[in-house]
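User: What would this chain look like folded?
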Amino acid sequence: MTLPASDGAAPQTADKRTARPRSAVSAGVGLVGLAGLLVYLFAARHAPEIAAFLGFDWGDRGPLNGPNSAIASVLACAIPMVLWSVFVDKVHRNPSTGIDWALRRPWRETLDISLTKLAGLWATWALIALTYATMRYYWFGNYAFSMDLLERVAPWLLLVSVPYMLWLDRRMTEPRDGCWQFGRWLIAGHKTGGGQPVDGRAIAHHLRAWAVKGFFTAFMLSIVPGNFADLATVPMDEILANPFTMGKWAILLLYLIDVHVATVGYILTLKPLDSHIRTANPYGMAWVAALICYPPFILMSGGPLDYEVNGGSWGYWLEGHDMWLAVWAIALVALTAIYSWATMAFGIRFSNLTHRGVITHGPYAFTRHPAYVSKNLSWWIGSMPFLATSGGWVEAARNVVLLGLVSGVYYWRAKTEEKHLLADPAYVAYWNWAQDNAFVPRLVTRLTGRARPLIRLEPDARVGPVA
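Assistant: Here's the prediction, encoded as C-alpha cells.
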C-alpha cells in the first residue's frame, strides 16, 4: 500500500521506512523567532544601560517590563518568523495555501463572495465578543489585559479585513469556504434562491476553528505580560545565587519562549502564510480533554487534580544540597527545553485542537508527542509527589494518584489529537514512520515486546477534507 502525503511530503510506503516524511515547517522559522525574542529580552533588561550608551536620558524608568513591552516582545518573535517563512521558505507558494498568485479575477466576479464572507467573518467576531462580554471571568485578573488589548485592536481588524478579503478572494482557487457558507446562511437562510443548501459541515469547521482562536488567543495574551516581566526584572545576582534559582530562571526563560511562539501561532492563522487551520478537531471528547487543562475549566492547579497540595517541590527537599539541586535543575531544564523546542518546531503554526500541517522535525523525530512526554516527566521529577510535607504516606499516595490522573489526561489528549490527525494521509505516513524509527515508540516496543501494527488511512466525514 502506498500512502500519499500533503505539504510537499514524498509518498510513503507501508513497509519499514527510514526516510522521515518532510515537515510542513522548516527548523529555521522557530530559530529566527527565538533569536528575535532573545535580542528583545536582552534589550528590555538592559534598556537603561543601552539608553545611556546611546546618549538618551532614560531617567529612573528601569527595564522595559510593562505590558506594552511584553506585546512588543511578541512582535519581535513574530516578525522574523514571518520574514523567514515568506522569503526563505516561500510558504506563500505552497499549493496547500489554496492561492494561485497568477490568478486575477475581475472584481465583479468575487465582490459578492467577499461581501458574503465579510458578513460571516464579522458575525463570527461578534459571537466571540459577545462571549467575552457575557463571561465575567474575562474581565478580571490577567484576562483584563487581553480584553483591553483586543478592544483596542478590534476597529483596526474590522478595517483591515475589508481590503484583505477583497484582495485575497481574487486569488483563491476556491474562495467559497466555511466563512462564505456561514455568511450565506446568515444572509439567505438554509437555502439560496437557487435552492442550493448551505454546507453545514463547512460552517461547523469555520465555527470550531474560530472557537479555538477565540479561547486560546485570549488566554495566551493574558499570560504574556507577567511571563515577560518575571524575566525582564529579576536581578542577575539573584539568578546566580544557587543552582535552584538558576534552574528556576532557566525554566522561566524556556516557558517564555513557549508562550511567545504559541501566541504568535494563534494569531497568525493566515492562508498567504500557509498557516491557516486545515481542520479543527470535530470530536467532543478532544475538546473536553484539552479544555480541562486551561482556565477557567482547569482541573489541575487549584482544582480537584491539584497534586501539589501539602507537597514539597524539589527546591524544598534538596535545600542545602547544591550538587543534587544542580542535578535536578539540569534534568528539569532539559525536559522543559524539549517542551519549548516542541512548540518552537511549529513556528507560526502552533495551535491546540487544530491541524495546520504535520510537523516531523526537531523533537517530533523522536516521539509523536514530545511536549506531553517532557511536560509530564518534568512534573513528576519537579513536584516529587511521592514526598509530602504533612500527612505522611497517605498524603504522598494521594499526590501520586492525582499526578497519575493528570498524566492520564494528557494521554487522553494525545489519543484524541491522533484520532483527528489520522484523517490526513501525511500524518498517517508520519505515524507509521515514527512507529518504526522514532526513539520513544521503538523503546516502548522493546520494553513491552509488542510492536503496534502500521495503520491505514481512515477518512472521517466529521473531519472533512484536509486543505
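Residues 27-88 form one domain. If you want, I can go into more detail on any region.
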